[in-house]
Specification:
Oligomer: single chain
CATH class of the largest domain: Alpha Beta
CATH architecture of the largest domain: 2-Layer Sandwich
Shape: globular
CATH superfamily of the largest domain: DNA polymerase, Y-family, little finger domain
Strand content: 15-25%
Strand order of the largest sheet: 6-7-1-8-9
Order of helices and strands: EHEEHEHEHEEHHEHEHHHHEHEEHEH
Bound molecules: magnesium ion
Amino acid sequence: MHIDVNSAFLSWSALKLLKEGSKIDLRNEISVVSGREASRHGIVVAASIPAKKIGIRSPMNLRDAKKIYKDVIVTHQDREFYKECSKNMLRLIKYLFPKYEQYSIDECFVDYTEMKKLYGDEVKFAHKLKNEIYKRFGFTVNVGIGNNKLLAKMASDFEKPNKVHTLYLNEIEEKMWPLPISDLFMAGKSACQKLKGLGIETIGDLAKYDQNKLIGLLKSHGKMLYEYANGIDDSPVENRYDDRKGIGFSKTMEDDIEDKATIYEMLSKFSNQISLELKKRGMYAKTLVVTIRYASFKTYNHQIKFENNTNLEEEIFKYSKQAFNKLWNLEPIRLIGLRVSDLSNNNDIQLSLFDENNKVITEKEIDKLIDDINKEFGSGTVFKGFNNVNQKKKS
Ligand SMILES: [Mg+2]
């Protein structure tokens, strides 16, 4: 299941105003929430359903929103209150489901597979769950149900608010394929433009298209979109790690970034910093998380476990690129972060594949050599070339 708060920031702001004694419920008005930070001042970060109906969207300039409807009600975002609402909902989810995954401030996945024995029919339970959330906290959610995370997420995005939808594999042809490709999870604006250039208009068109041509056009992103269009997703529902126990770096961009090379450079730099810090502490990490915040303020994480616990820059960089590519929908990025966690002081290299182990040991030796030279002759005397942006150039 995917549980998604309906117009989260707007609903939560509406709730806060009601609690403070306001007579109007922003959810029923043509209303928006605007950004507070200087750089985002005057940008719509959330719009009510009535506002969306007349074409007001985030991220839109407040001035443009007022051109559409001059009496639009504007309120400022309140991150502290949003966090509180988010935590309340998550607490209930954690209580009900051993396997949950917080996906963003207002979205989470739960694995219902084993719970069915206990809670019964998933559709009936989803209705109970959404009603319980409303009764306890005063805001509505959509619950999407599917065979995997992708299908559940697509389902929760169907008609809103306060609804339960299913999207099982045998329903994708009827319920998902007729939708425009822009409705497909991870199909951002620029990918959609390229796909439309191939005559692909609906998710069904994409599902039936030649996968190799899509890979030629959009690389790994094309492969992923093709799989999603066919309802394929094998990623598990995984709890997020404990933030406090890791090492991480992030950067907020001056301008929103759209090109991969710049992001890779940043991930490379973070990998280097993390590797140094791990070595300093004599620790190895088991888990890595990449965080992306988009211009729209939505923040997403993708977590990967290393094959072997590591403190090697090359490994951290390699996995960070994998996680990043799973996460990025090609939209402009406002913040990028990289963090490792599950730290321990053993590197626990498994005797799996001979070649791989040789590679790990070789890289480790190189790292050690570089460290030794830098200790001897001062930091920065030797460093690794940045050779991973373009794999073809790698030798
Ligand atoms: Mg939402």
